[in-house]
Amino acid sequence: MSRSASEEHELLESGKPRTLGQTLREKPEIPLAILLFVSLIGGWELAVRLFEIPKIVLPAPTAVGAALWQGMTGDFLMHFGVTFYETIAGFVLGSITGLVLGALISQFRLLERTLYPYIVAFQTLPKVAIAPIIVIWFGYGVTSKIVITATIAFFPLLANTIVGLRSAPAEQIELMVAFTASRWQVFRLARLPHALPYIFVGLDVAIVLSVIGAIVGEFVGAQAGLGYLILQKNFNMDMAGVFAILIVLSAMGIGLHLLVNAIQRRVVFWMDGSSDRVMGA
Q1: Which has the closest alpha carbon to 260: 156, 120, 104?
Q2: Radius of gyration, CA atoms only, the chain
Q3: Whose CB among 152, 163, 220, 237 lies 3.0–4.6 Å from 131's, allowing a Cys bridge?
Q4: Residue 158, number of CB atoms within 10 A of its CB
Q5: What's the pTM value of the predicted model, to 2 decimals?
Q6: Residues with Cβ < 8 Å from 62, sequence gap 6 or more?
Q7: Which string of DSSP letters, residue by residue, matches the chain?
Q8: Which domains does the chain possess?
Q9: Under a CB-based contact definition with an 8 Å cutoff, are residues 95 and 203 in contact?
Q10: 149 with 214: CB under 8 angstroms?
């Protein structure tokens, strides 16, 4: 069957590379985000200069940019590496712990009734309050920061794993059991696929909280790291340097968040934005 002229035109157009104007028309959020960023930075700079706000209260964006450039060519990278290692190590440790405990609790009601209340009670404790105890137990090195980060990161995985593994349709479970499927087969073929969207939501929350956990640990007691550097600059009244470090931390958190989302799109490829309907932590 021959194509019409309009169909041929659409096929030809689809083969052409998209121009910048076409991309911006299809994604209006890009220019809007750029406009918002420029407006915020410009308004911030104008307000600091117009009202002569002291730099110890609110440094100008230009001063923050200069401090960021100076830090990136100085000691920021070394301290960034320490905090990044603590974040990733704590995230991995906490995620594995939460995933394993969540899988066990979801499968065994006895564990839910005996172990889970204690986990919830521990989670309600402010981590800032127990962080000094962990530092005393594990020392001022990176080990204590990893443990603190893990205690913050594990609960989102635990809660989402429990809910996710119980989200499989009962009819599907009953059908597999009727066909003599083992507990492992039911878990692998039915429960786990339904739980993956929930698990990745937990991972997304946990990776962001891991950055906070590493900084909390460094605030309590550390010899290196971005949190340690923030304390130093606060002591020296270097607010521009503090804001520069906060920008680095935000960039690290956003980058890790995007990495988890990219992995989720690869693993949970059958989802179409359904993660928005999945339970958060």
Answers
A1: 156
A2: 25
A3: 220
A4: 28
A5: 0.82
A6: 45
A7: -PPPHHHHHHHHHHHSPPPHHHHHHH-THHHHHHHHHHHHHHHHHHHHHHTT--TTTS--HHHHHHHHHHHHTTTHHHHHHHHHHHHHHHHHHHHHHHHHHHHHHHH-HHHHHHTHHHHHHHHHS-HHHHHHHHHHHH-SSHHHHHHHHHHHHHHHHHHHHHHHHT-S-HHHHHHHHHTT--HHHHIIIIIHHHHHHHHHHHHHHHHHHHHHHHHHHHHHS-SSSHHHHHHHHHHTT-HHHHHHHHHHHHHHHHHHHHHHHHHHHHHSTT-SSGGGGS---
A8: 5-52 (no CATH), 69-277 (1.10.3720.10)
A9: yes
A10: yes
Q: For residue range 220-270, list pLDDT tens digits in order.
A: 888 889 999 999 998 888 899 999 999 999 999 999 999 999 999 898 877
Please write the tens of the pLDDT for every residue from 77-122.
Answer: 899 999 999 999 999 999 999 999 999 998 888 888 899 999 999 8
Amino acid at position 153, single letter:
A
Number of C-beta neighbours around residue 177 at 10 A: 14
CA gap 193, 67 in Å, rounded = 47
- Cα 202 to Cα 95, 128, 155, 159, 164: the distances in Å are 9, 22, 8, 8, 10
Place of tokens 């073929």: 189
**Token couple for 244:** 């520069």
Say if residues 257 and 208 touch (Cβ distance below 8 Å).
yes
Of the chain, the end-to-end C-alpha distance in Å amounts to 54
